[in-house]
Structure formats: structure tokens, C-alpha cells
Amino acid sequence: MVFPRKIKGFRDIDHGLNSLRWHIIEKATEIYKRFGFEHWDSPTLEYAETLGKYLPEADEVVDGVYSFKNPEIEPQFNDKGTELRDKSNNVLMTNHHLTMRYDLTAPLARMYSELIWQKFMHNQVQEGKADLFRRFQFGPVYRFEAKLDPGRFREFWQIDFDTVGSDSVATDAENCMILSDALENIGIKKGEYIIKLNNRKIIKGFLESIGVKSEQDADVMRVIDKLDKIGITGVTEELGKGRKDEKSGAFITGLGLNKKISDGIEKFLVSFDTNQTRKKILESLSSLKIDNEIYVQGLAELLEIDAILEKTGYDEQTVIIDPSMIRGMGYYTGPIFEAEYLGTYKDAKGQKRKVGSICGGGRYDGLVENLIGLKVPASGASIGVDRLAEIMTLTGKVPQLIDGPVFIVNFDDHLMPEYQKIASDLRKEGLEVEIYYGAKKGLKQQLSYADKKNCTLAIIIGEDEFNKGVATVKNLKLGKELADKISDKKEWTSKVQKEIKVDKLVKEIQKML
Amino acid sequence: MVFPRKIKGFRDIDHGLNSLRWHIIEKATEIYKRFGFEHWDSPTLEYAETLGKYLPEADEVVDGVYSFKNPEIEPQFNDKGTELRDKSNNVLMTNHHLTMRYDLTAPLARMYSELIWQKFMHNQVQEGKADLFRRFQFGPVYRFEAKLDPGRFREFWQIDFDTVGSDSVATDAENCMILSDALENIGIKKGEYIIKLNNRKIIKGFLESIGVKSEQDADVMRVIDKLDKIGITGVTEELGKGRKDEKSGAFITGLGLNKKISDGIEKFLVSFDTNQTRKKILESLSSLKIDNEIYVQGLAELLEIDAILEKTGYDEQTVIIDPSMIRGMGYYTGPIFEAEYLGTYKDAKGQKRKVGSICGGGRYDGLVENLIGLKVPASGASIGVDRLAEIMTLTGKVPQLIDGPVFIVNFDDHLMPEYQKIASDLRKEGLEVEIYYGAKKGLKQQLSYADKKNCTLAIIIGEDEFNKGVATVKNLKLGKELADKISDKKEWTSKVQKEIKVDKLVKEIQKML
Predict the structure, then answer these.
(1) CA of B286 to nearest chain A CA: how many angstroms apart?
(2) Alpha-carbon torsion A243, A246, A252, A257, what sign?
(3) Contact B12 A111 (CB under 8 A)
(4) CATH entry 3.30.930.10 includes domain A168-364
(5) I need a labelling partner for B338 at 20 to 30 A (CA). Which of A283, A499, B254, B386 fits?
(6) CA distance A276 to chain B (A)
């Protein structure tokens, strides 16, 4: 005998949450397809080394991912795919490390690299002319976070779309359009969210212009990324000498930039009012007269994206430019975008809380290069399905509960073939019908089961009804609605329940639904 | 740099195969829902002990599954869910074994047990009165088969439906109806498949009647299960003294049943003509006058199922009774059913091959008992999604290839906002539209990309067209159809290509699709 339980951080998903999860997946993928993306899938499990980043160094599971040794012993390969051999020319064998995918981007890099591998090995892939590949994918990803914050999970679903092999920033414009269309198709209305657009090249060019060394870029951006959390004063302090964290009292060492530079960054960050039109912000960016190559390029790209968004009607109600928006991940190289949910919710303590970012993405031209050394431009975005489902639940945005099936009460086992015939006739019309098979056969117990499943109607046929050729049909849904309004039991019953001839049942029930 | 590759036995699923996979999932779940099943999900990873069967004994990954130690150290529990402690009252900690699910049934047992656990611990669950739970679930499962036969995979998808907590064989009748409806909804027509129905109780009762000891039942059934492969002579030999395998020449030791018994089994197995009506076969089973309890019960159950199938119109074109059908798995306890695909296909060597079983299920009343010791009746079935997809491909049953998006040729980067506007207008009507973003910009290369994606129409606008306010629209789909029929290039072009004013584009393209 065993104590039945799930692994900590893993969940069973019930019918209700599953409905919401698949609502999000269906509505988002409908939009992804509308922009020409194909549905591809990759395995849940991959060789650890092909996923990069989390390469296990010892024989142990490494922090952050679920990783283990392949039970199969296999040849070792060099980076050209040639088997390694020892001095006696025997193939070197090993149990490779396997990792459960921690996102859908690393497997995309492996998949794309594999698709072009033969051509690449035969020098038939020109840099800058790699094959175009546009796919979406959804499914669970796995993170082993040693400390599991409340509301965080170790298995959660993502839904990604990516364009690999295009350096056109028109794809970045499109990515903003896709996120916007997807969110609205899911049920988040215009005005309830905003997409923030920026370009890493703008930040980089600006930092270069005020004398930040390029090797410090990543650190500076990591600090700027905290703007929402610690405010502009905190950012400026952390760029310079450091600051004392208000909550913990701990001192956080600063980057040690000189005051002129940190003041310059502060000035840059506060100088844009994101309520302004994109045109105005682009003008401000232009008026800074920064003339290094990367800044000029970054600005030109934003102008190009803006022109496309304007032409296609995605105005400032949908996409704004926010030059202070960074996005955490280190691998972005160009345009970045992030959808912020503008609503608030009340947390467990009843406090109002901002939702913040719900999805985003950007251009990451190092994707394939990190794996096989070939520069291939790429841009894409990801919606955290479970995170969005949670936010929709917290903010009351969940679409109407799905109606359960029509319910046939099992009053008398001997009438089972009759119940089956009725169910079968109704199903032929496409209706969802459930006959009760439970062991607890009391009418109350049966109707309580139907209630839990949100059933719309209950069909009741006992011996008497059967002999008369009728069925009692109870409108469970209407019954619930009227329960508060009508206190008189007789009146309630007369509205909610009626007798219908069995041979009229299909038509009458179709009318009632 | 890394050699990019997948783990052996794992696959990337391309757009085409994914379309087929999701066609099967959608069409099957549509039917499952129509019978009142809810969509629940369980994690991919579970504590090994809760999945039973493949419990790792050592610290090693065990044959048959992917299993590894949880990176997290956690308390040990007894089977009541109480933490174990040492003599000093310290909680005993361990890294539990985790297993990637090898099917969807074992996690169902864990999930159901967990759902009723509190009530069960407080003695509020009466045996025979356990809660009714009906769910469907789909997703990948994992098997580490050391020897991987061609066409077999270590990650593959299943789609299960199960009724837990009902001993009514009406659910078994329903399961046959569901498999039939699901297969037809997927596109396998009546006459192309047949569902075979049997009852383990019939076999068991018969074996008891001729003197087979109940502890030999499983072995005998394992041999009978080979009937399709080794024929009736092979089965009789293997029940008795053994036989020489024709292909390998190896001698297979028999069960050593005496001749009277093995002859009796042979007689039973060949005495039913499955072309007969279910009524006739039930009469034959009845005429054997076997009067032990299990046989009588098994026959009564088949009669009940037959009555329901007859009443609902599932005749012998859909469901037959085959008393020699066993199904491999040891855990079935009552009615079993299996859909056989009647078509053939040609294998790689051009030889005609029978497809055989494509899905099935049965009653397994030990499901929950094996885990927590509570008897809860259950019945369900599973469709192997990837296996069915493969068979549909092999037998040419794949539904029409899905049309790709409308394709907008990128002739001139400066016209990108115009392309975007056109795409946006078309998408607003729900059309799928892709603008070409690839690095290889030749018209031929662009159209070759569109061809690979099965695009229906191509919209071509260059500088000339733009100045005239027109677009050239090429009907790629029609073009392919006419390519064989029309050899004159001019005539072909006149049928396949036309100039359309940009402001009429949406309407004209809707007409063309």
C-alpha cells in the first residue's frame, strides 16, 4: 500500500482549470496560425548538452532543472557529430545526461540546428542566408527551483512562436501585433493591457554614448530592469555606490559607476513619458543626437516597426514605446516587447496588487550561434499559459463556465437500455449526454453529482414514466438561477420541471438548451 | 559547440504529423465529451512508488521506464501518510524516486486515490460505494525499451477515458460505443474496423470448468493471446508439451497441461464463428451449460451489454463477440474490447500486412486496490494516438492536407508597410496570411517556401503594381492541379494568375478560397 501524492510543485489540473488552459491555447494558436506559423513539437526530454545553459558538470542533478543520466549507454561525439575513439580505436561510450526541457526556446535551437545540420556540415549554409523557419509550440516545461514560492510551480505550460532565419524587424512588429491579437482573442480587452516596445540597441547605444564600457552593459541593464521594483532612486544608487534595501536592511553593493554616468542614466530613464505618442518618443530619442552605429540602427528599427504598426492600425492604445523597459533575459539583441496587464487584483490578505507583465519576447540573434556557432537571426515571444490562467482567475476574467452534459438519472437498472437509447438519440444530434453510473443511487446523490458537473438538464424516467411513455425533464441551470428569486416551491417546480413525451424528447431538449 | 541531436527513440513532430495527431485528439475528445467525460490532467513526472509496477529496487534507473532520484530531499511516509521517524524522533529524509509516466492509467489511480484520500482515511468511503469519477486525458507517455524496434518510440501519445467507481457493465457497453464513435469521427469508416468484445469472466469460468487451476489462468491466457500470431496448432502445442518456433528454430517450453485440457481449450477456441450474430454466439456460450458462478456472471454481463448495443443500434457491423479475444494486459477483470483495423498496408518490402488492433480497453477492478487497498471498480479504454496516426498514414487514410496560409511575396522591403496592411485586412476576416521574411529573396526561392508550406494563394506586389494600385494574385493550389493538364504556359498562367485592384483584394481573395 502507498500514500498517494504528487511531487511537490506539480499539480493535477481539474476540468475547470483545463477548460481555461485550453481556451488560452486554442485562442492564441488561432492567431499564431493566422500569421502563418506552423505547429511543431519537440520532445519533453533532451540531451542536456543540446539545451545549453544548464550543462551538468558532475554526475548530479543540477540546480534549476530535472536532469539525470540516460539509462542507455551510447557513443560520445565531437561537435561535428563524429564518434570519439580511444587509442585502440574503440568508440568511447557514456551515459549522456538527459534534461527535461526548461523552456521551449532551447529545444527550438536544437531542432532548427538539426534541420539544417547536413547542409551546414557540407558548407551549404551561408551566414545571413539561413533557411526561414516559423513555428509555434505549446506544452509543459520543468524547473527545479529549490525554494518554491507560493503560486509557483515546477511544471507549467508555455506557448511560444518564433521566426528563425529573418533579420527583418517587420517580424518584430508582427510579434507585437500577434501578442495583441492573441490577448484580445483570449478575452483581455483593449485598454486592459498595453504592449511596451523597446530596442536593446537603443539602450546599448545610449550607454556607449555616455561612456559605459560594453562589458558592463549586462550589469547596468540588470539594474535598470529593477526600475518597477525599486524606483528611480534605487536604480541610481545601485548604479553608483549601492543602496540599503528598505525591507531587509541589507546593503546592496553598487556597480560603482561614476556620478556623471549614473546621473546620465537616471536622466535618460525619467525623460520619457510613455503616455506620449510613439512619434513623440521617437522624436525625443532622435533629439538626443547620439550618433554611434548601434543607436542609429536601433532608432531606425523602431521607426520601421512604428511605421508598420501605424499602417496596420495598432496605435498607442495597444503598443507604446518605453525606452526604460529592459526585460530580464540576457540573450536579447534587438527589439523587445512585453505585454503588461493593467488591472489589479486583491491578494490573499485583501491588498490591491498590480499584475504587471503577462507575456513578452524579443529578438535574440544568438539563439543558434550558441549551439553550433552559426549566426542565425531570430525573434519570438512566449505566453505563460498557466500564469495567464491564474491572472484571469484572480482578476475575474475567466470566460463563462462551460455547461456540463445533459444528465440522465439512473432510476432503475432495468431501464438501462431505454436510457441508453435516449442518450444515443441525443448524442446523434451532437449533444453531450451522461448517464449516471455511480454506486450511490439516491436521487439526491445523483443530482448532486450532476450539479458538480454543471449539468444543464436532468432527464428522469422511473417505472411510472416509462409505462406512460414520458420523461420528467428538470432544467438544472434555470433551477439554480430561479432558486434565489422564487421562494414558493410549487411555483419553482412548475417553471423548472416538465413532463415530455419520450418520442418528442430530442426536439424539446434541443429547444431547452 | 555541440552536435545537435535528439535522444534515440524521441522525435520532433512536424506540422503535417502534428495536424494528424491533433485531428485524432480533437475528434476523439469530442466524442468523449459527448458521453459526459471531463478533461483532467496529471503531471508527466510522479513519485515512482505511486505509479506501482515499476518500483525501482536499487538506486538505479529500472528497465522499462525513465526514473531518477528527486533532487529534493523529503520526508519518508508510511502508507497512511504519516512521516517516519528514527529513534531520536527525527523525521527520516530521502530523495524519492521519480518516474516519467509510462501510461495514463497508473496516474489516474494515484489521482483518484488522492481525491478520496481524506475521506478514505476517516473511514468515510464504503467499499462498493466509492465516488464516481469520469475523466479523459491525453498526452505523452514514456517507455525506456532497451531494444527499440523500428517504428517504436520512447515518447508517444495516448488518449484515455475511464469511469472509476462504477460496477455497471452499461459503462462497458458505452466504452464500445465510444470507441466506435471516436474511430468514425476520426475518419475510419464502418466496415473498415470492427470492435471485438469478450469477457475475462467467460474465459476464467470456462477454464475452471475443464479443470485448469486458477493460478494457471494467467499463463493460459498469455498463450491464448498468441492465437493471431501462432495459430491454433501453436497454441495447443504451447498449452501442452511445447513447440518448436518455425522462424527461430528454438523450442518453446509448454505449460504442460494434460491433453484432455489442452484439447478442450482448442475446441473452445475454434468453436465460435465470429461472423455469426452476437445472439448466436451468446446462445453457443449458453449451450455449453457451464454453471460455475464466474461463467454465469460473465455470460449475464455480455447479455446485458448486447441488449444495450442492440437498443442503441450498434450491430454486428460495429461490435462482434469473440470469445477467443484475450488482450495482453494482466489486470483486466471483466469485459474487454478491442478495435481491429480491417485494412492492410504494404510494408517497406512491399509485402501486404494486416494492421490488427488499434485501440482497446476493458474493466480492471483492481486499479485503486493495488495502490491503497480499497476495491473500486473501473473500466476504460485508450487510443494510441501516434500508432493510429501511423496506421492512417500507412493505409492512406490521412485527411486532406491542411491548406497553408495565403502568401504575400516580399518583393520590395520598402513596400513592407503596404504588405502588412493587406495582411492585416485579410486577417481581420479570419484568413491565415504569411508575409515572407526570409533572407533568400529571389521570387523562385520565395515561391518554393510557399509551396513547402502548402500555401493556397500568392499575392505579388512590386513597384509597378504598387504604382498602379493592383496586385498579381497567383492561385498556387489551382496551379498545381492544372500543371499536369495544361502544357501551354500562357494558357496555364491565364487560368492561374490574375491582376486584382488592391482595394478589392479582400473580397476577391475570399471568393478564390
Answers:
(1) 21
(2) negative
(3) yes
(4) yes
(5) B254
(6) 23
Which residue of chain A comes nearest to B136, CA vs CA?
A15
Contact A114 B313 (CB under 8 A): no
Q: Nearest CB to A437: which of B38, B166, B449?
A: B166
Q: Across chain B, what does the average pLDDT equal?
A: 93
C-alpha cell at A233: 532612486
Residues of B in contact with A111 (CB under 8 A): 12
Phi, psi of B144 (to 5 degrees): -95, 90
pLDDT the model gives residue A61: 52
Topology (CATH level 3) of domain B181-362: BirA Bifunctional Protein; domain 2 (3.30.930)
Exposed / middle / buried, residue B258 (Cβ in 10 Å: 0-12, 13-18, 19+): exposed
Q: Which three cell numbers stand for residue B463?
A: 513597384
Distance CA A168, CA B465 (A): 23
ipTM of the shown complex: 0.93
User: According to CATH, what is the number of the domain A1-44+102-161+377-393?
Assistant: 3.30.930.10
The CATH number given to B1-44+101-167+365-390 is 3.30.930.10
Distance from CA of B274 to the nearest CA of A (A): 24
Dihedral angle sign, alpha carbons of residues A173, A175, A178, A183: negative
> pLDDT for B357-408, tens place per residue?
899 999 998 889 989 999 999 999 999 999 999 999 988 888 776 789 999 9
Tell me the CB-side half-sphere exposure of residue A46, using CA atoms within 13 A.
30
C-alpha grid cell, residue A191: 485598454
C-alpha cell at B41: 490532467
Measured between alpha carbons, how far is B378 from B371 in angstroms, rounded to an integer? 14
* CB-CB contact of B186 with B179 (8 Å): no
Question: pTM surpassing 0.90?
Answer: yes
Q: Which residues does chain A have within 8 Å of residue B170's beta carbon, measured at their own beta carbons?
A: 416, 420, 435, 437
In chain B, domain spans = 1-44+101-167+365-390, 49-100, 181-362, 406-512
- Grid look-up 562589458 returns A215
The residue length of chain B stands at 513
- Give the CATH superfamily of A406-512: Anticodon-binding domain (3.40.50.800)
Identify the DSSP state of B216.
Answer: G
Q: Grid coordinates in use for B222?
A: 498469455
Residues of B in contact with A13 (CB under 8 A): 40-42
Helix, strand, or coil here: B22?
Answer: helix
For chain B, list residues with pLDDT below 50: 56-59
Decide if A1-44+102-161+377-393 and A168-364 have a common fold: yes
Residue to substitute from A10, A22, A41, A113, interface B, most B β-carbons within 10 A: A41
Q: Which residues in chain A have Cβ-Cβ distances shorter than 8 Å to B416?
A: 168, 170, 304, 308
Name the residue facing A71 among B52, B79, B144 (closest C-beta). B144
Q: Which residue in A18, A117, A404 is closest to B40 by CB distance?
A: A18
CB contact under 8 A, B12 and A43: yes
As a whole number of Å, the end-to-end CA separation of chain A is 46
Across the interface, whether the CB atoms of B7 and A170 are under 8 A apart is answered no
List CB contacts (< 8 A) between B34 and chain A: 405, 427, 430-433
Residues of chain A with pLDDT under 50: 56-59
Chain A residues closer than 8 Å to B423 by CB: 312
pLDDT in tens, B58-105: 445 557 899 999 999 999 999 999 999 999 999 999 999 999 999 999
Q: H/E element holding B300?
A: helix B293-311
Residues 6+ apart with CB under 8 A from B20: B389, B392, B393, B398, B399
Q: How far apart are CA B240 and CA A127, in angstroms?
A: 69
Contacts of A49 (CB under 8 A, 6+ apart): A55, A96, A97, B2
Query: End-to-end CA distance of chain B, in Å?
Result: 46
